[in-house]
Specification:
By secondary structure, this protein is mainly alpha-helical. It has 2 domains: 15-57, Orthogonal Bundle (Arc Repressor Mutant, subunit A), CATH 1.10.10.60; 67-207. The chain is built from 11 helices and no strands. 25% of the residues are buried. The model is unreliable at 1-12 (pLDDT under 50).
């Protein structure tokens, strides 16, 4: 089997790059769904030749696999990292988690919505979504248990946190930042049974460059 040589810098410039093709695929996917992720339309979008694509991906299936890997890294990965991040209290831990879903956070809500739409067309993708949901819920449940909540209560609180956020995504809720900020302390109270301190809220606002 002949191995295709890697393109040099000049060649890569003419053909784009793996990151460029993947970004174009992600944009088409979140804008129009999985049927929009096809090689020729992406080539047209990038003003590149169709054959350029094959320097970076074996075929369309490989591109779709890369999209799924990016979804897992940006969304499941960032959620797990937030639940395991440093926090002195459960309220601070929940604020860390809420932060990933803000506009400046790493969780890509439009990408998550697009993957969930794709799952309606594919049993294989639906299984991956269910697995990701289970992994995310387990991470949030473990976070609550780390702060002394019993398994059953931690499970329900984890579901309350996660399903609320998935509801925001699925319903495509449009909520300006100022309004959402006024609701966050009460969300934390609902999720944890405890109110975040002024100090915790100040750190949260500072972390996201928000006016207090």
């Amino acid at each position: 089997m002949t191995t295709k040589p890697l393109p040099d810098e000049k060649t890569a410039g003419w053909r784009g790059s793996r990151e460029l093709w993947l970004a174009a695929a992600r944009d088409a996917f979140v804008e129009s769904g999985i049927d929009a992720v096809k090689i020729q339309p992406l080539a047209n979008r990038l003003n590149l030749s169709r054959t350029s694509f094959y320097w970076f991906f074996a075929d369309r299936a490989a591109l779709l696999d890369a999209l799924l890997a990016e979804w897992q890294a940006s969304n499941t990965g960032s959620l797990i990292a937030a639940t395991e991040g440093y926090a002195e209290t459960i309220t601070e831990a929940v604020l860390n988690l809420i932060g990933i879903f803000l506009d400046d956070g790493p969780f890509e809500t439009r990408l998550d919505l697009a993957v969930r739409g794709w799952a309606h067309q594919s049993d294989q993708i639906a299984a991956q979504v269910h697995s990701a949901d289970a992994t995310r819920l387990a991470a949030i449940r473990a976070m609550f248990m780390r702060f002394g909540f019993e398994m059953a209560e931690a499970d329900v609180r984890a579901r309350t946190v996660y399903l609320t956020q998935i509801g925001y995504i699925s319903m495509q809720v449009q909520e300006d930042t100022a309004l959402r900020m006024t609701r966050i302390p009460n969300y934390v109270m609902t999720f944890t049974g405890q109110r975040p301190t002024d100090r915790e809220l100040a750190r949260f606002h500072a972390a996201h460059a928000l006016a207090q």
